[in-house]
Amino acid sequence: MNRKLKNRLELTLIYAVVLIMFVVISYPLLWTLSISLNPGTSMFSSSLVPERWSTTHYEWLFTNPQSDYLLWYKNTLLVASVTSAASVIIVSFVAYAFSRYDFIGRKYGIYSFLLLQMFPVLMGMVAIYLLLNVVGLLDSLWGLVIIYIGGGLPMNAFLVKGYLDTIPRDLDESAKIDGAGHFRIFFQILTPLAKPILAVVALFNFMAPFMDFLLPRIILRSPEKFTLALGLFNFINDKFANNFTRFSAGAILIAVPIAVVFLFLQRYLITGLAEGGTKG
Amino acid sequence: MIALYDFLNIGFWGIYTLGTIPMVDDSRALLVQGLLSVILVVFLLLFYAYNLVDAYRDGQKLRSGYAIPSMKESFHAVWDRGFPYYMVLPGFFILVFVVVFPLLFMISLAFTNYNLYNSPPAKLLDWVGFDNFTTLFTEPIWRSSLLSVLSWTVVWTFVATTLQIVVALLLAVMVNDARVKFKRLIRTIFILPWAVPSFVTILIFAAMFNDDFGAINRELLAPFGVQIPWMSDPVWAKVTIIMIQVWLGFPFVFALFSGVLQSISNDWYEAADVDGGSRWNKFRHITLPHVLYATAPLLIMQYAGNFNNFNIIYLFNEGGPPVRNQTAGGTDILISWVYKLTFENNNYKMAAAISIIMGLVVAIFAFFQFSRSRSFREEKMF
Question: Among residues A2, A5, A116, A186, which one has the fewest Cβ atoms lying within 10 Å of its Cβ?
Answer without folding.
Answer: A2
